[in-house]
Design brief:
The chain is an all-alpha fold. The chain is built from twelve helices and no strands. α1 crosses α3 and α8 runs antiparallel to α9.
């Protein structure tokens, strides 16, 4: 049950962070959002590092942390750009397909689903897609261009790889893996800003939102890492990728995206699936 709660909490936080990131990136340069939000995330981790809470000598933890950071940086950058230029209800569920990477790894490691658990996960995932994806139908809603779709696929691959690396490293040392991952992502963002020659530009009124993105991102990462230590990787990975429903719901509430009947059915399915998973865990 602990793993279920942690994974669902991570999903809620990731969904909120992605909504804010996609919204803010529509009016602020992507490099600014990524750099400043990541600085905020590192400031949260700094006290633990100063207290000596890190152990870089732990077997494999640096490699897993660096790999997770690179994959996460690519995924978040691609996702925010896709959300800013496309429809959230289309982009978010595609990005969630990265769940196939950790689920596959978990099954190879020996994870097993009971019938009830498998049904609950399937219902929740289908509900998440229904809640966010109706705009994919031809002629329904705004035209869907190719670029956001491609970026969403890249984000999916990045998130799947990042979550797997995070799980592997956290099994050895959670704090060190998360911190190394966060530092690596910041280095990637800074390198991208230098190559593109784009200095951070930000208005004062947007600063709280950018900082919130970083704080939510690191909170979600910590919760996800803790969930992988408390439960089966395959189950945790599926629950953590229910965030598209959160992103789409926030898009409906604050951006005026329409909520259709099929989306309501999807939201209900998510709750029913999660209830079955919780009862089976």
């Amino acid at each position: 049950m602990t793993a279920v709660v942690l994974a669902l909490s991570a999903s809620m936080i990731f969904g909120t962070s992605d909504f804010l990131g996609g919204t803010v990136t529509r009016r602020i340069p992507l490099t600014t959002v990524l750099l400043l939000s990541q600085v905020a995330a590192l400031l949260v981790l700094l006290p633990d590092a100063l207290r000596g809470g890190l152990d870089p000598s732990a077997p494999g933890v640096l490699a897993w942390g660096v790999a997770a950071g690179v994959a996460s940086a690519i995924a978040i950058g691609s996702l925010f750009q896709a959300l800013a230029s496309g429809t959230m209800g289309v982009v978010a569920p595609i990005s969630a397909l990265g769940v196939l990477v950790p689920v596959g790894a978990g099954l190879m490691d020996g994870d097993r689903f009971s019938v009830a658990l498998a049904v609950g996960l399937a219902v929740a995932v289908v509900g998440s897609v229904l809640a966010t994806g109706p705009e994919l139908r031809h002629g329904d809603g705004p035209h869907v261009s190719r670029r956001p779709i491609v970026l969403a696929v890249v984000a999916a691959a990045g998130f799947g790889s990042a979550n797997l690396c995070l799980a592997r490293g956290s099994a050895v040392d959670l704090s060190t893996t998360v911190t190394v991952s966060a530092v690596t992502s910041l280095v990637v963002y800074a390198a991208a800003a230098l190559v593109l020659r784009r200095a951070p530009v930000l208005r004062a009124r947007d600063l709280p939102l950018v900082l919130a993105i970083g704080l939510l991102s690191i909170a979600g990462m910590v919760l996800l890492a803790a969930a992988t230590r408390a439960g089966a990787l395959s189950v945790v990975a599926v629950l953590a990728t229910l965030y598209p429903a959160v992103t789409a719901a926030l898009g409906w509430r604050f951006l005026g995206e329409r909520l259709r009947q099929i989306q309501v059915v999807g939201v209900v399915a998510v709750f029913l699936g999660v209830a079955v998973v919780a009862g089976s865990s």
